[in-house]
Design goal:
The protein is mostly helical. α1 packs across α6, α6 runs antiparallel to α8 and α8 packs across α10. It starts with a helix and ends in a 14-residue tail after the last helix.
């Protein structure tokens, strides 16, 4: 559970720095993606390439090999959509949400590669029920993540119909639920009844993730209801970045 807290704090600090320096972040976003990929590769390839990690702290390695830091980045992206639109901090965070999303996707792809052998066990029917749930959730997440990731690149978004882009981005809600379902499969104690779900070895971590995403969906639903009551245009209710920070689509 401490690793989750550390990951969330690190994600918030990174988001704050990127929001303050959003102009250079947008200018050098490709460099940021490359650095993210290199860092992720460093943590997932020591066994394959035969080198030792300079920092071999479990809390640090778990953030990248188990996708904990990626989920923290996705949480920052998600909760940004719950903030009041008039706040200056909301506009700043919106300006770098695409970059945070792509970074989270890169780390998630690394996690999938790291646990690739588990997919073989899944198709051979060798996994427990919980692991099967987690693996199915992972497959669904990858299917959802690829188009979400690709359309987070401004060069792709700029050449898409805005309505189509926003409709596709709305699948992020299902993606966030899938993130929780993946954790549920890994950490829930499924040998007892409902009361025993959170009593396993990683029960505290499951509670932490359940609160994290449960609160998000509640707050997001309330904000959507308020926006509809105030007759905010439907397009503005969708998860999106500030339009003035996105290249215009060429007709």
């Amino acid at each position: 559970m401490q690793t989750i807290v550390y990951a969330v704090i690190l994600a918030l600090i990174l988001a704050a720095i990127m929001a303050l320096a959003y102009k250079p972040v947008r200018k050098y976003r490709v460099v940021i993606y490359v650095i993210t990929a290199i860092v992720e590769a460093y943590f997932i390839l020591p066994n394959a390439l035969g080198y030792e990690l300079i920092v071999d702290q479990r809390a640090v390695t778990s953030m990248f090999t188990m996708g904990i830091f990626a989920e923290a980045l996705f949480a920052v992206v998600a909760y940004t959509g719950c903030l009041p639109s008039k706040w200056k901090v909301t506009h700043r965070l919106k300006s770098i949400r695409a970059e945070l999303s792509v970074m989270g996707c890169i780390i998630s792809i690394g996690e999938v590669l790291y646990f690739a052998p588990q997919f073989i066990s899944f198709f051979n029917g060798e996994l427990s029920v919980g692991r099967e749930i987690a693996t199915i959730a992972t497959i669904i997440l990858v299917v959802l993540m690829i188009p979400l990731m690709l359309t987070s690149f401004y060069c792709v978004r700029a050449n898409m119909n805005p309505k189509s882009w926003k409709k596709l981005q709305s699948t992020a809600y299902l993606f966030y639920f899938g993130l929780w379902l993946h954790i549920f499969g890994l950490y829930a104690s499924l040998n007892g009844g409902l009361a025993d779900l959170f009593t396993g070895k990683h029960g505290e971590a499951l509670i932490c993730y359940t609160v994290l995403w449960g609160v998000y969906f509640i707050v997001r639903f309330i904000k959507l209801a308020i926006d509809r009551h105030n007759k905010v245009p439907a397009n503005d209710q969708i998860i999106q970045d500030d339009d003035d920070l996105v290249p215009a689509r060429e007709e």
